[in-house]
Specification:
Blueprint: H1 12-34, E1 41-45, H2 51-60, E2 65-70, E3 84-88, E4 101-107, H3 116-126, E5 127-139, E6 144-145, H4 151-168, H5 180-186, E7 190-197, E8 200-201, H6 206-224, H7 230-240, E9 247-248, E10 251-258
Parallel strand pairs: 1-2, 1-4, 2-3, 4-5
Antiparallel strand pairs: 5-10, 6-9, 7-10, 8-9
Length: 261
């Protein structure tokens, strides 16, 4: 599998910033509900731009520790926090401590990994007894235009379906979020809960920039696959920038559970 969103793209930090603007409030609200305490040791998998890792550093304080991992760490290395450890790490293949963390969190990571269920088991084993695993993953069944039905709405829906089909061929599971509860329970986690966020967005919403940059990032792959033409992408981008445009985003599920003990 080739990862679709590596950090070599010149606009990847901008894309990650759009994701942070759109999703950080939801992520932080759910993490607060877990009850993070000073002194905790936390692991942020696929930390991306590092906004959640930096927030966790503030929550655990000087007595705590946050380990932030990614395949490429240059964005994380810009964070100034004495209690942060940045680690280049592949969660599928690289060694991971067991019985070590009070909280492990990942957002928009496991969707991309064919080994995703096995990764959940690895992460559960890395928790201390009583530690929390929190995973966010998507469900793109809701990605549809909500403006008045017509040619533009039908075009948006079909274009998104074509893009999702091409990315799914690389190993992405666009519906993994709906399975998280089942996967957590199979991993032996207790007190499992799952909640979802879905937003309607227009050209002024942070999701507009996120989807625009995400579609731009994978445009060449989609065109090469014959799923859409360059001209159809131009129409899609123009439509998303029009005042009348409205659509639902994907559901972002937040699942959490505790290791027994």
């Amino acid at each position: 599998m080739s990862y679709l969103f590596d950090h070599t793209w010149e606009k990847e930090r901008q894309r990650l910033a759009a994701m942070e603007a759109a999703l950080d409030p939801w992520t932080i609200r759910n993490l607060i509900s877990i009850g993070i305490e000073p002194g905790w040791r936390c692991l942020e998998i696929g930390a991306g731009g590092g906004s959640i890792a930096a927030w966790l550093c503030q929550q655990v304080g000087a007595a705590g520790r946050v380990v932030a991992t990614d395949l490429e760490t240059r964005f994380l290395e810009a964070i100034e926090a004495d209690n942060l450890e940045v680690r280049r790490h592949d969660i599928v293949t690289d060694a991971l401590e067991t019985n070590s963390y009070d909280l492990i969190h990942a957002r928009a990571v496991l969707d991309h990994l064919p080994e995703r269920d096995a990764v959940v088991n690895r992460l559960a084993a890395a928790l201390r007894p009583g530690g929390w695993l929190a995973i966010e993953a998507g469900d793109f069944s809701t990605l549809r235009a909500t403006m008045e039905r017509g040619d533009d709405a039908r075009f948006f829906d079909s274009a998104c379906a074509a893009i999702l089909a091409v990315s799914a061929a690389t190993g992405v599971d666009h519906f993994y979020g709906r399975r998280l509860g089942t996967v957590f329970r199979r991993a032996g986690l207790a007190g499992v809960s799952v909640a979802g966020l879905v937003c309607e967005w227009d050209r002024a919403h942070p999701l507009a920039e996120l989807f625009h940059l995400t579609f731009q990032r994978i445009r060449d792959r989609v065109v090469e696959a014959g799923a859409l033409t360059v001209e159809q992408f131009e129409r899609l981008f123009a439509l998303m920038e029009s005042p009348a445009f409205r659509a639902l985003g994907n559901i972002v599920y937040f699942a959490c559970g505790r290791r027994a003990g």
